[in-house]
Request: fold
Amino acid sequence: MLTAPKLDYALLAPILIILGAALLGVIVEAFVKQALRARLQLAIALTGIIIAFEQLYRVRNEGSSIAAVTSVSIDGSGIFIQGAILVFAFLGILIIADQDHFAPQASALPGSSEEASALESGKQQTEVFPLTLFAVSGAMLFPIATDFITLFVALEVLSLPLYLMVGLSRRRRLLSQEAALKYFLLGAYSSAFFLFGSALLYGYSGSLSLNGLTDAIKGSGGNDVFLLLGAAFLSVGLLFKIGAVPFHSWTPDVYQGAPTPITGFMAAATKAAAFGATLRIFYIGLDAAQVSWKPAIAGIAVITMVFGSIAAISQRDIKRMLALSSIAHTGFVLTAVVSLNKSALSATLFYLVAYGFATIGAFGIVTLVRDSAGEVTDINRWVGLGKKSPLVAAVFSLFLLSFAGIPLTSGFVGKFAIFSAAYESGNIYLVVAGVLSSAIAVFFYLRLILMLFFADATSGSVSVVIPSLLTRIAISICAIATLVLGLAPSLLFDVAQNFAYFLR
Amino acid sequence: MTTSTNLVYLIALPLFSAALLLLLGRIADKWGHIFATLISASVFVIGAIEFFAMQGRDGEARAATQKVFEWISVGTFQVNASLLLDQLSICFVLLITGVGTLIHIYSIAYMSHDHDRRRFFAYLNLFIAAMLLLVLGDSYLNLYVGWEGVGLASYLLIGFWNQKPAYATAAKKAFVANRVGDVGLSLAIMIAFTQFGTVTFAGVKEGASGASAGALTAIGAMLLLAAAGKSAQFPLQSWLGDAMAGPTPVSALIHAATMVTAGVYLITRSNFIFDASPTAQLMVVIVGAITLLFGALIGTAKDDIKKALAASTMSQIGYMILATGLGPVGYAFAIMHLLTHGFFKAGMFLGAGSVMHGMNDEVNMRRYGAIGKVMPITAATFGLGYLAILGVPPFAGFYSKDKIIETAFNAGGIEGILLGGATLLGAAITAFYMTRVIVLTFTGTKRWDENAHPHESPFLMWAPMAILAIGSVTSGFLLSSGSALVNWLQPVVNEHHEHHAEEFLPPLVVSTMALAFVAIGVAFAVLKYRTVPLIAPTDVSLFTKAARKDLYQDSFNEAVLMRPGQKLTAGLITTDYKVIDGLVRSVGWIIQTTSSTLRSIQNGYVRSYALIMVLGVLALVTAIWMVTL
Reply:
């Protein structure tokens, strides 16, 4: 006789509200007049996010590991990351709402007459809103899931909408669709590894939950082929999602091809969700076997930050450069993951928020720099932008300085927290590698700032469009957050420290 | 000690005026010079009031202090921006503001055709402010600020006509030479701080009594280096001749009467250091003696009237420095000579300016001659200054210079005879070159340029000259009658020394000898310059050649300091470029190349990406495997 599982709806409310808003969006898409859809969708999405955040705030101190039997664990880290994802989603949607970035009819073949007529009719397709909300719901489930099935479902709910969203670009559609297909193929490939890893771990422990896995490792010792292979394969799925080398190959292509607002959202929210899950799996599930995997993951951390920093130097496309810079940041955060202590956990939480704000803001600025054919991502054509549009260039420079970890920006505090946590845990070589690759990375950030402000503009005419109010709000929030978290980091840092715990 | 609240205005007023005139720019062109002159005059009035107030107080209470604000407070290092007006500084305040005001007035006419007159006056006010801070600071650090300030003002004014590259170079040369001295001053301050934990004059004085001889000598030597830089003393003397590039009022004020005497002030102010260190004192007298002869010799061969006077300034300051090195008894005479020199040398510089003004800015004395007839007032005031510098009684120099010569002889033994001899010889050479200036300029035959139409200068120019000439005549008598200045300064320089020097020679003998030497010098000059060729003759003695080249001071500096320095710099640049930059560049190159290689791996083919992932999985599994084994 099966009994219905007991669910604690109050604790699950944030996710359910987002899912509800997404479903509502689908209904709107089907039944509401085209002309009204865009505004309605925007209102639904923003309202849903705000209510979800409010609900999340309400339950912020009510941790529980049995909210949905043993499938999820609502605890400090989970709530913090969910909150961060909701904030990023809010900012992301503000920029996404500037519909100019999306194809009027995604199903029309690039260059076909259907596309032309869709463009002409001024049609706007608004599926991107419910798609984003579905992705957000997956992203919110991922960091709190505690068994492999839920983890996998969350991963797919997060990923599938993203595959679609990447292909929605209005301009350079072939590039966009190519990116979507690559992302899908490689994502499916990595999901297979994740699933295979889960199966092996189930075979090892006889349990699907992280707690069961821990108990099994403690019971039998961590030296088993199934365990080690399973841990490795599971890691591959996670490392793919966070974009760690050598599972990063998709990142530059996808970041470049995707519509820029989606890139910003993805870079911030997906990374936060994937790191949330990674932290939980490594801190809870595989903690007992850390001797086996720690050196390998630490090695990946080093390779990732060095690779990201070096490879970014020769990029000529601003979105690719930011993609490689995000790979470098993945490496920095990984150093905290392998430090496995509480200060590393709170440092990671802080870093993810700081990085997310700067990333959404930076990609938001990229959406503004255009010529007659749309966004201009060729770095050489950004030369001298500081003279034409000093404010935009200055704000962009602020984000770059934050990426570079220059003091008085949030990036500095984040890097400092992460490296000091790594130092505390005795991983000096990680700190050395981190600081050195930061130094390499500073080069291309500062070079870009130099090009913006201290070089004369070339002939290619690039102009900055006046951003819509929503975009302006989003970028302003990001800039202010970047600055405030740099000047008064304790505002968020204390919160991160309070929330830096896992429930088993 | 009296507490005063007015001292700060002495500095604040001219500083404010300078800032105002510079910030307002061309708006202030019409009235800037008048404003600056009024400010300078009112500062003089304040100084005079303070002087009389001080006379009204007795003994200990004469010195006045004012704490302006707490400046530095780091651990045990406490420095207040405090001012100290005592018997020594009031002499300087009156000299600086008095002569300064006269020169402001003179400059109104002298600079009337200059487009940038307002800027000139702003710099003059800046100089007044900085110089007053220098003499009013109550600690070495406050003094240092003024010290640097006058250096800046001097730099700005020497290069005032910086459109001429040679003038800009002269300004730079003065600045660099001064920097060498400034390093000495900062080192002296640092040593004082490490030794005594304080940098106030009072604190250092207190500490000096118990300090080691080595420390005192080190501080003294560094202070002497500073004094040599600012006062154009050997071996940092080379800048003063070139500094004549500045407008003539500047030469009169800064490079004759006030700033260049800052070294004398510094040593006098630091008397407690030098009195306690005979070695440092010996260095001081040697530097003074060398410079007084060095300057005098250069003066004999200069055809440029301002450079001749500059050489004379160097030589006269040599007298003062020498006097300060003679211990407690010398300080007062050094200051007395400083004050009288301030009158007669400033007067003569203004006279030179007046002549230049009438002669289309001609400075070559070989193109002068017989100017006395057309410019009688200039000639008369200059003549009085001439008599004063020669030391003819009863003119000012007689009182001050003879006292120095006397004191030098009284130093005793071989040292006394050498120093006395040097000062006597210096007096003779002084007489020679000053007579040469007079003969070439004011008497003899016209050797003018065709376009020259000399005429007497306007009232605004000759009035200051006349006032200074009165000072040249009377100041010596006034300062020495009843040992007025010596008694006045006694609390500052001579507190615990009841000094009764044994007289080597009676004063009358010394004066007679000095006058005899002066007479010889004058006679030589008159005989030699009965006729003056327009072009300086080239078949002259080696000695004249050397003097014309400033005794090879520049060649020496260039060969010993400049060229090796340039070689060193070039070497360092090469090292920096090849080795250090090379290292950095090759790191950059390696990273760039690696980056390009990595970029080519990112080929866009999804199959390659999948392959990379497989390899990654294999590597990861292997790594975990290896660790576990």
User: Anything to note?
Assistant: Strands of chain B lie at 2-3, 64-74, 77-85. The interface with chain A takes residues 588, 591-592, 594-596, 598-599, 602, 604, 606, 608-610, 612-613, 615-617, 619-621, 623-625, 627-628 of chain B (CB under 8 Å). The longest helix of chain B spans residues 553-601. Residues 298 and 547 of chain B are 5 Å apart (CA to CA).
